[in-house]
Amino acid sequence: MKTLIVHAHPEPKSLNSSLKDLAVSTLEAAGHEVRVSDLYAMNWKAVADASDYGPAASSPLQVARDSGRAFDTGTLTPDVRAEQEKLLWADTIIFQFPLWWYSMPAILKGWVDRVFTYHFAYGVGEHSATRYGERYGEGTLAGRRALLSVTVGGPEAHYAARGINGPIDDLLFPIHHGVLFYPGIEVLPPFVLHGTDRMSGEEYADAVKAWEQRLLTLESTEPIPFRRQNFGDYEIPSLHLKEGLEPANRTGFAMHVRG
């Protein structure tokens, strides 16, 4: 297995950094190849702008079209091209980050904004009366799997179905479904540690064991069964879920998961 770890935490001695290091050592000891993109250590530029696209940049700037033209002509900046090459090399991607303000840190969102360019991660495939591009289960990154490893400061009860912060699955849905499944990546159930601001030594030891277990079972873990776009569940071109397919008592995001 070839694994890319995209790590987003500014403190090398943080819990997130220790989980990243543990992932590297555990996977390598099991015979897997590992590469790491440590975004803070890399001084990753988090803002997409005209400088990313070189001579392909237009005026006024059109981010989608310009990023696609730069991808097609090989004029994306070297840092972006290097990350795209890592994604194409990997068959598994681990994203290690803390949940900040209900989402990923800005530097990681900036990695997505710059690396997932038009024609690389989206804007591909046939658009017709029966297909709406290769998205949601198809696309250039199909055949890969991804896992979010997320630390959360608050207690688990705050992120339960009736918790005030909302269910953790709903908070992660935009990343799982909108960032990863959109270009075809299969998404594994997340590894989430709650109450990390007050974690005891004993709790940390338990977390280490649980994380090692998840890492060693990555290849056998079933992905979240999101519905694929072009395989009969959605009306084209409205992309509304067909009547009668929604499981009983499910609304919102949960309707887009089979079973």
Task: Kindly describe this structure.
By secondary structure, the protein is an alpha/beta fold. Helix content is 30%, strand content 12%. The protein is built from 6 helices and 6 strands, in the order βαβααβαβαββα. Strands 1, 2, 3, 4, 5 and 6 form a 6-stranded parallel sheet that branches. It starts with a strand and ends in a 43-residue tail after the last helix. The mean pLDDT is 95.
Averaging pLDDT over every residue, what do you get? 95
Discrete helix count = 6
- Derived structural class: alpha/beta
Give unreliable regions as ranges.
none
The shape, in one word, is: globular
Q: Note the gap between the termini.
A: 29 Å
Helix % is 25-40%
The Rg value, from CA coordinates, equals: 19 Å
User: What's the helix-strand series?
Assistant: EHEHHEHEHEEH
Largest sheet, if any? 6 strands, parallel
Q: Secondary-structure map with pairings?
A:
Layout lengths: L1 E6 L7 H15 L3 E6 L24 H11 L4 H12 L2 E7 L7 H10 L29 E7 L16 H14 L4 E2 L3 E3 L7 H16 L43
Parallel strand pairs: 1-2, 1-3, 3-4, 4-5, 4-6
Helix pairs in contact: 1-6
What's the short story on this structure?
The chain is α/β, with parallel strands linked by helices.
Descriptive labels:
alpha/beta, 259 residues, six-stranded parallel sheet
